[in-house]
Amino acid sequence: MASLFDRIRKGLSRTREAVAERIATVVGGRRLDEEVLEEIEEILLTADVGVDTAVAVTDGLRARAANAGAEADVFDLLQAELEACLLTPPEVRINFLPARPYVVLVVGVNGVGKTTSIGKLAQRYAEAGHKVLLAACDTFRAGAVAQLEVWAERAGVEIVRAKQGADPAAVAFDALEAAKSRDADVVFIDTAGRLHNKVNLMEELKKVRRSIARQCEGAPHDTLLVVDATTGQNALAQATKFHAAVDLTGLVLTKLDGTARGGIAFALSKETGVPIQWIGMGETIDDLQPFDGHDFVAALLGRGT
Fold first, then answer.
1. pTM (predicted TM-score)
2. Which one of 86, 231, 245, 295 is CB 3.0 to 4.6 Å from 202, fit for a cystine?
3. Per-residue pLDDT for 196 more than 70?
4. What is the DSSP track for the chain?
5. Residue pair 80/64 in contact by the 8 Å Cβ criterion
6. Domains, the chain
7. CA–CA separation, 286 vs 52, rounded Å?
8. Is the model's pLDDT at 68 over the cut of 90?
9. CA 19 to centroid of chain Cα atoms
10. CB atoms within 10 A of CB 24
11. Residue 256 CB neighbour total at 10 angstroms
12. For residue range 10-36, what is the model confidence (pLDDT) as tens digits?
């Protein structure tokens, strides 16, 4: 079976081709002068690292190169600089819960893999021996509850649902009541996909969050935004708006295996101040992995751990 690092490396193959292989061609034994730095900056931009972050990385490279001298390896310098862009997420300790019930609110726009990510996380926590409850608070999209029910059955966990059109905040409230009465350890709250620029929908999300807080002290203990790596800079816009609305604690970055835009990870972390907690690189449960900045950059640059 492939190691975790090998799976990450494979999942990032398209982004690696867009970044590391092109940079290797540009450098090709040349000194890290201004012309090379400009070309590296352009390559980072094409991988959706983002203007501000790409400029910061190249400025950092320039400074590191000046301190390290002519013999320094460009990829050593680049690895250090890219890692510096990534916030260190809190350690994912599935066997140790920060609260009980540990309540996780999961948000995002339509089509990013939100419900699938919840299902995979639920299965992970269930396999670790925790009693998991899913709250089906997406009461608007036809088929949303059915999709979550499939994951609940697959993971062997319980689900709280309501009729289509029910108030999502009320469903969340009922789910936490059920979690307490059923002695659940972990509650994942699925919310309707919503566009980050729709004020009324974001207000509804705030209402769900307030309902959770009233029902369970300190909850939600995590608020995760699921973003699709293939959407590039739009993912950054989403993260900024959702963070302002519901105070995100972490990001789940999905579909990294299907894009050359994996550089968006650096912009997301550096420009929002929200750490990436999980990355998704495929359809199986093992393809959703805790995020490790060092391994991510090493895999992106085609290096060993």
1. 0.93
2. 245
3. no
4. ---HHHHHHHHTHHHHHHTHHHHHHHHTT----HHHHHHHHHHHHHTT--HHHHHHHHHHHHHHHHHH-TTS-HHHHHHHHHHHHSPPPPP--TTS-SSSSEEEEEE--TTSSHHHHHHHHHHHHHHTT--EEEEEE--SSTTHHHHHHHHHHHHT-EEE---TT--HHHHHHHHHHHHHHTT-SEEEEEE----TT-HHHHHHHHHHHHHHHHHSTT--SEEEEEEEGGGTHHHHHHHHHHHHHH---EEEEE-GGG-S-TTHHHHHHHHH---EEEEE-SSSGGGEEE--HHHHHHHHTT---
5. yes
6. 4-85 (1.20.120.140), 102-296 (3.40.50.300)
7. 33
8. no
9. 20
10. 13
11. 26
12. 889 999 999 999 999 998 878 888 999
| Residue 93 to residue 82: CA distance in whole angstroms | 25
At 230, list the tokens.
């293939």
Q: Is the pLDDT of residue 232 over 80?
A: yes
